[in-house]
Amino acid sequence: MTETKHSLPRQGQKNSGPLLIATLLLIAAIPLPAAAAGFRITNQSLGAVGLSGARTASTPGPDAGYYNPANMSFTADQWQVETSLTILDLPTITYQDHRTALLNASSQSERFFMPLVHAVSPAHGPLRFGFSLTYPFGLSKKWQQPLPRASAQQFSLLVVEANPSVAFAPLPWLSLGGGIRLVHGRGEVDSEVLNPPFDQLTPLTSLSRSSDGTDTRPGYNLAMTIKPHESLAVAATYRSEINLDLDGTSTLRAQAGSIPLAAYSGPGTVGITLPAVLSLAFAYTFDRLTVELGWDRTFWSSFNTLDFTYEQDFLGTVFDGFDRPVPKNWHDSDAYRCGLSYVWNPRWTSTLGLTYDRTPVPTATLGFDLPDADALVYSAGIRYRYAAGLEFGLSYMYHYTKSRSVTNDGAAGLPGIDGTFTNGGAHALTLGLLTTF
Fold first, then answer.
1. 9 assigned to some structural domain
2. Of 120, 226, 256, 357, which has the highest C-beta tally within 10 A?
3. What is the DSSP letter of 323?
4. Looking at the 3D structure of the chain, how many domains does it have?
């Protein structure tokens, strides 16, 4: 959003901004089907949450260092810092089996707190520097019923990224940017196959796995922005693929009643691919209104299998199913974004956003770890300038996945799915503080 210069309203002057913003927020609260595709978490700042991720071509704040480092060249020449907290709420997902009601299930609802930091430096000649701390990927699902418990009693992934960045403006209308991505991942998987209902385990009554691991890897991001006119920006960004090998410990158990028949406790590793992302967008400012239209392609086709490895080979043993790669074969997916920012007056700014996000998960390999579907993302936000160098903001985003019916054969000895997933989705609320000096 381009800064619009106006004097602050005098004491006692009427201000219709809050009433208009309240009306917009009331409209924005109307629920629409929405969800994020895959396990990428697109919205990593106050502005991005309020714009449904349409934050590539127009990033006038400190989050430019993350969403488009090239845009740091076009921000105000001063220190800019954003500290925010996103509260992410994951409601229950309901599964209704088409074969028997005994296999119906519902996931546990969960809540997460993600502190976010963005900073941009003043200009140093043609250079600007930035830093961001974000959570670009994540996943968490917990199920207790027998069918989903067999693969995802608990399935979680947390990814934290530190991203120093730099911008270089060789021409007044052109800026190039990039940065180093330092990504740390932590994963945990618990699963348990029970007899009953899976009587093929006989004489076993349970077969379980518990694995955890961590890894830290580097990557990079690149950006370019062209401003042929003061009101128009055209931008492209690219974030590299990163392959994590989550090394840790695994515990495997096979039991008949309370009697342990086989066990393993030792090193275990699982590979997770964080896909590359290409974003193209343009933004145009009409006086007080800035409109951004954008397209993302997330290259999920690099996520082919989920493969656990151990210190020894378990193929052909009672733990055979835990040692076989689980095919994923995800597809590259597209997201189409639209964001609106409006400066009502020098104190109040509001945002609205809408995104259509295609799922990368094919029916053949969809599982209880991520029962994903095509989605819309609908959001709104407000910012209040308390003083010349201090702003407060609040953004809200609503997700609700579409119902999806799935029939597949399962993999690695795990039972297949024949049913319908409903409900789920997510709510995100971000509270932010922006300072300049």
1. no
2. 120
3. G
4. 1
Q: Is 231 left (phi over 0), alpha (psi -120 to 50) or beta?
A: alpha
Question: Is residue 2 in a domain?
Answer: no
Mean pLDDT of 50-64: 96
Residue tagged 């009601």 (tokens): 101
Q: Which residue has the tokens 């201090």?
A: 390
Distance set, CA 251 to CA 25, 261, 319 (Å): 49, 14, 11
Helices (H) and strands (E) in the chain, counts: 4, 24
Q: What is the DSSP letter of 413?
A: T
pTM of the model: 0.88
The angle at the Cα of 82, spanning 4 to 229, to the nearest 5 degrees, equals 35
- Predicted confidence at residue 3, as pLDDT, reads 39
Query: Are the beta carbons of 293 and 281 closer than 8 angstroms?
Result: yes
Q: How far apart are CA 304 and CA 259, in angstroms?
A: 37
pLDDT tens for 119-148 read 999 999 999 999 999 999 998 999 999 999
Asked if residue 25 has pLDDT above 70, the reply is no
Structure confidence by residue, pLDDT tens digits, 343-359: 999 999 999 999 999 99
Q: How far is the C-alpha of 212 from the C-alpha of 196, rounded, in Å?
A: 27
Is the distance from CB of 101 to CB of 94 less than 8 angstroms?
Answer: no
pLDDT band at 21 (very low <50, low <70, confident <90, very high): very low
Can you give the pLDDT at residue 413? 64
Tally Cβ neighbours within 10 Å of residue 360.
24
Segments of 275-389 assigned E as strands: 277-286, 289-298, 305-306, 308-310, 326-327, 333-343, 348-357, 375-387
CATH number, domain containing residue 173:
2.40.160.60
CA distance 135 to 85: 12
Residues 340, 301 contacting (CB under 8 angstroms)? no
State the Cα–Cα distance between residues 52 and 241, nearest whole angstrom: 23
CA distance 49 to 229: 27
Report yes or no on 315 lying in a domain.
yes
pLDDT in tens, 163-194: 999 999 999 999 999 999 999 999 999 999 99
